[in-house]
Design brief:
binds 2-oxoglutaric acid; vitamin c; alpha+beta; binds fe (ii) ion; Pro_4_hyd_alph_FE2OG_OXY; elongated; EF_Hand_1_Ca_BS; 3 domains; four-stranded antiparallel β-sheet; single chain
Length: 452
């Protein structure tokens, strides 16, 4: 034994209670050659055992983590999966406690900085780009959100609906539009048959009974449509389109939207990352058409939605004392406008403007309408705890005057009651209602306003 070794062994025996204080003094090969009965080997044994246990615990924790996460992903996937064809959204079944908890939190997209582009997965097999247009309000632009075909169909359907508003019977000229939609009677039936049970319940027709703000089809109107449809469906197998089509054609436009918009709704959920229940229970799409000279003065969308003007589903919860607010606006451009028609945000990112803007040119930010593009913004700030805070004054916006051509847009307003308790109560009641009582109007074009 060398002097050096003796010194080191002495040091090893003179160890602290943990026994580890002397270990770094040894060379690795020397440590291995320690005698079994020495303090050194006992400390080693303890250290190795500790490491071993920590390792095992880590492995177990990792396995738990992987298991838990894959479960979450499955749940998310089934939640996010586009409702193919005629499937109803999952939210129709009563949610579990966990789902409810998740469904009442409000994630917010980060804007990062003006001009920042992030990829979003809205449809399978394709990524969309989402560009931050302003941070105040938090405003994004997504080119190509709707396809050309989708824009066309929404405009045609809205046109048909507009024409239908005066009467249910199809007039000359409307037939041409209806023919363009090219729907077979079976397709019409399918579109009506929301729950796909092969039968038409009255509530499936009632869902679309709102003609325009505050005006509903009468029970008599509905009975006529219902009778006409049954007759039509029966005769359609044997005869070609004939006179019987007529009462139906006016109605197609409401129904067809079921086919067109569930996907839009799904995309909005993916885009905003909001709980599906919330989007599902919000107002139906509203279509707006501006003729030349048409414009919309600067305003906030976040005004309350009162029962007289709220759509079917919001009527369930909204009453004069508990109005819902428009938390998010998603605005779709259905066509590119030949001249003017920009959506203006007069005070975006810079509160320099102190009067109601009448001149679009002076707005801080103007978005040019481009077919298929969607823009969306938050009308409310966050309260910092994941819930609705103050109304965002920067969300002031308007539609500039259309100088050439026509402008078509559609609004999807996502409604929320800023009162957390009321909102959660509302969601709980709505999602646990049986489907037949659940009034789902989330895919209905409700109105055409001409702003002039
Ligand atoms: O037409 C636009 O660009 C804006 C429309 C709008 O703000 C609205 O309909 O509330
Ligand atoms: Fe607006």
């Amino acid at each position: 034994m060398t002097d050096n070794q003796e010194t080191q062994d002495a040091a090893a025996e003179d160890t602290t209670p943990s026994g580890s204080a002397t270990l770094p003094l040894r060379q690795p090969c020397e440590r291995l050659s320690c005698h079994k009965s020495s303090v050194c080997s006992r400390s080693y044994f303890v250290v190795v055992m500790v490491f071993f246990h920590v390792y095992i615990i880590n492995v177990i924790a990792l396995l738990f983590y992987v298991h838990y996460n894959s479960g979450q992903e499955d749940a998310n996937r089934s939640r996010d999966a586009p409702s193919s064809g005629h499937q109803r959204p999952e939210s129709r079944r009563p949610p579990s406690k966990d789902e409810l908890q998740r469904d009442i939190s409000l994630p917010r997209i980060e804007g990062i900085r003006v001009g920042h582009v992030q990829k979003v997965s809205l449809v399978s097999g394709r990524l969309h780009e989402m560009r931050t247009l302003s941070l105040k309000p938090l405003l994004f632009e997504i080119p190509g959100f709707l396809s050309e075909d989708e824009c066309r169909v929404v405009m045609q359907l809205a046109q048909l609906k507009g024409l239908m508003e005066s009467q249910l019977m199809v007039q000359d000229g409307q037939e041409e539009l209806a023919r363009e939609l090219n729907l077979s009677p079976e397709e019409i039936f399918n579109l009506l048959d929301i729950n796909q049970d092969g039968q038409l319940q009255l509530h499936e027709i009632l869902t679309h009974s709102r003609v325009r703000d505050g005006i509903w089809l009468t029970p008599e109107n509905l009975r006529e449509i219902y009778a006409g449809l049954k007759e039509h469906t029966r005769s359609s197998k044997t005869s070609k389109r004939g006179k019987k089509d007529k009462p139906l054609l006016g109605f197609i436009l409401c129904l067809h939207l079921f086919k067109t918009f569930p996907f839009t709704c799904q995309r909005v959920i993916r885009l905003t990352r909001l709980p599906p229940t919330l989007v599902d229970l919000s107002e139906p799409l509203q279509v707006v058409r501006y003729e030349e000279g048409g414009h919309y003065h600067a305003h906030h969308d976040s005004g309350p939605v009162y029962p007289e003007t709220a759509c079917t589903h919001t009527r369930l919860a909204a009453n004069a004392s508990t109005p819902f607010e428009t938390y998010i606006t998603v605005l779709f451009y259905l066509n590119s406008v030949d001249g003017g028609g920009e959506t203006a945000f007069p005070v975006a990112d810079n509160r320099t403007y102190d009067e109601v803007v009448r001149n679009c040119d002076k707005s801080n930010l103007r978005v040019k309408p481009t077919k298929g593009t969607a823009v969306f913004w938050y009308n409310y700030l966050s309260d910092g705890r994941g819930w609705v805070g103050e109304q965002d004054e920067y969300a002031l916006h308007g539609g500039c005057m259309v100088t050439h051509g026509t402008k078509w847009v559609a609004n999807k307003w996502i409604n929320i009651d800023p009162d957390y308790q009321r909102q959660t109560r509302y969601q709980r009641i709505s999602v646990s209602l049986p489907q037949s009582k659940m009034i789902t109007a989330n895919t209905n074009v409700t109105n055409i306003k001409v702003q002039s």
